[in-house]
Amino acid sequence: MVRNNIYGNTVSRAHPYWDYFEENDDYCIGLDSKKNINYESLKAKQASLRFFDFFSTLNQFFGILMVILIGYFYGNIDGSYEWKDINSNISDNTYYRSYLNLHGLAVIVGLVFLQGEGILINRHFRHEPKSIFKLYQIVFNLIALACGAFALAASIIYSNKVESNHFYSFQSWLLLGVLAIYLAVSSTYLFVFTFPRLQKNIRQALKPYINVMCLVTFILSSLYSILSNALYINKYVNNNEIKICTNNKDDCIDQFRYIMNFGLVATVLYSIVVVIQASKPSWSRKLKDI
């Protein structure tokens, strides 16, 4: 069966990549075509898409593994995810450690996983209507920003309860910077590409810069997550004087240390895969469709 794909090229639906067409290619893609086929170019495109599918599999595997491991870690150490009474006056600092657990969960789910998936939406939905991936991007960005704001609030509440100074560390300022940049980039993207949506030539001119800023924000978010989790291990897990286990098993600390370490490795690998997928121009949506 021969028909036109979304780019107006006459191709065969039997071809596995019948709807794939690069910006700088003058040939139609398909087993049957009214034009001559550059088979070398076709072979390269097929291999490129297979690599993209492979990286997408890695992306989902490392992302889900990262969320499960770090979520399990914070959900099973002292305090778990219980939201303590903000108005309580208990002097025991360990009572409020659940705020740190909620902070860690919100960062890894929102600022790392959901932000990474939001960046790759237009690459996973390369040929669907624009409204689909733009809606997903808006939803993912809103949830990620909400998680970031929640993480910041939980951190501030914990600092207030343990009478610790705010924003005296590089880690705290990094989180503030990430949220500020993320909010600015998301607002700019919404204004330029969605509503009120600027003219096409302006959108195409701004798109590379916005893409770079999205990647920078994601990389900074990943660095913050890795840094904060590593500091948590050093401050609490490796400190024998602080009890973080809800049971008295001798191997409790070692188990949690392994879980978080593998979670950190998964975070690094997930971030690398996202950057690779977001950096290859041929895997992006065509410029005329933005």
Would you write up a description of this structure?
With 290 residues, the chain is mostly helical. The chain has a domain at 92-283: Four Helix Bundle (Hemerythrin (Met), subunit A), CATH 1.20.120. Helix content is 65%, strand content 2%. It has six helices and two strands. The protein has helices at residues 39-76, 98-124, 130-161, 170-194, 200-237, 252-279; strands at 2-4, 10-12. The protein has a two-stranded antiparallel sheet. A hairpin with a 5-residue loop joins strand 1 (2-4) and strand 2. Helix 2 (98-124) packs antiparallel against helix 3. The longest helix has 38 residues, at 39-76. The model is unreliable at 11-34 (pLDDT under 50).
Helix percent band: 55-70%
CATH topology of the domain at 92-283, by name, is Four Helix Bundle (Hemerythrin (Met), subunit A)
Return Rg in Å.
23 Å
Separate helix tally = 6
CATH class designation of the domain at 92-283: Mainly Alpha
Q: Biggest β-sheet, characterized?
A: 2 strands, antiparallel
Q: What is the architecture of the domain at 92-283 at the second tier of CATH?
A: Up-down Bundle
Distance between the termini: 29 Å
Approximate shape? globular
Write the layout of secondary structure elements.
Blueprint (H helix, E strand, L loop, with lengths): L1 E3 L5 E3 L26 H38 L21 H27 L5 H32 L8 H25 L5 H38 L14 H28 L11
Antiparallel strand pairs: 1-2
Helix pairs in contact: 1-2, 1-6, 2-3, 2-5, 2-6, 3-4, 4-5, 5-6
Main location: membrane
GO molecular function: metal ion binding; oxidoreductase activity
Keywords: Electron transport, Heme, Iron, Membrane, Metal-binding, Transmembrane, Transmembrane helix, Transport
